[in-house]
Amino acid sequence: MKAYNWGILGTGNIAHKFARALMLLDNAHLYAVGSRDAARAEQFAAEFGFTKHFGSYEEMLADPGVEVVYISSPHTHHLEHTMLALRNGKHVICEKPMSVTSMEVSRMIDEARKNNLFLMEALWPPFQPSYLKADEILKGGKMGRLHHMRGKFAFVSPYDPELRTYNLALGGGALLDIGIYPVMDILRYMGEPESVTATSVLAPTGADESTAMIFRFSDGRMAEAYCSFGNMGGVCTEFNCENGNLILTRGRDRNQHLIIELPGDTDDRIFTPPAQGYQYEAAEVMNCLDHGLTESPVVPLSFSLTLARILDEVRVKAGIKYPGRDR
Ligand SMILES: NC(=O)c1ccc[n+]([C@@H]2O[C@H](COP(=O)([O-])OP(=O)(O)OC[C@H]3O[C@@H](n4cnc5c(N)ncnc54)[C@H](OP(=O)(O)O)[C@@H]3O)[C@@H](O)[C@H]2O)c1
User: In the list 10, 29, 121, 256, which could disulfide-bond 130, CB 3.0-4.6 Å?
Assistant: First the structure.
């Protein structure tokens, strides 16, 4: 089995979780970490056992040993950092949202293709055991036709204009940070909507504190998505089918639950992947590289582009603006 030299760009919250997950994979070599701050890079490297640490992203990306890079900077920096990695000949998995606008996502895809390098958006759910089980049940036909979906992602992030969640310069706002998940679920299971209705409540910085969306499909089906930094609504996607319902949720216990509701019968299945399941997307990257693929069949680049286009449309309808980044 070929082992891949990983580089991690950025040392924030999600980079810690991803590094912990990488440690579970035999074919992942924790090779390098790059930070804007040399001491932070050194500390991160020591915590997880990376071979090398760099006090700048440029230096890390110039290291010929780095083969695949995980981009974990704020959304507004994904374009710059992904381009930098690709131009240095590295394969990339970039945190969600892939970028702030679909135009930017399109540029990233073009650059990856031009260089014949792998690129994937780090969309975590499709690789989780609860989602794989839901896929199997939906495909099995027992639930009947999927008629409606409702997804929400909400938690309390107290208002602070400097925080990544509210600071527009760091891509602040609930839609791009957490609303992307219910929207992604709806697109994956119901396809591209014919029309989108959306409204937001904006924080004083202009970042959306809450956004509600309704999607209508050409065959008459509908779906709703909601995200907020203002309440403890939690994470839940409901699939309403002709014969019953599936409910995917993350409990207060942080476990993944798949609740299967059929007439007279309710089954709550609980999944507790180690490292919160972040290793599966990294394993997918290496599996694709093993097979000479430059994109993942599970999260293809066309999906990331469609997702970004729908998020553009929601933003326009709801009046969410990122200065200097129209589309
Ligand atoms: N997949 C998931 O479940 C998940 C969960 C949380 C977040 N995310 C995504 O991951 C990305 C980062 O989120 P996070 O919560 O990890 O954020 P965070 O804790 O603020 O970390 C972001 C890191 O990016 C680097 N960075 C580069 N330029 C920066 C700048 N101008 N300002 C601040 N930091 C900068 C910093 O690392 P250095 O200082 O070391 O350079 C910082 O530690 C976001 O795009 C978010 O959507 C995904």
Answer: 256
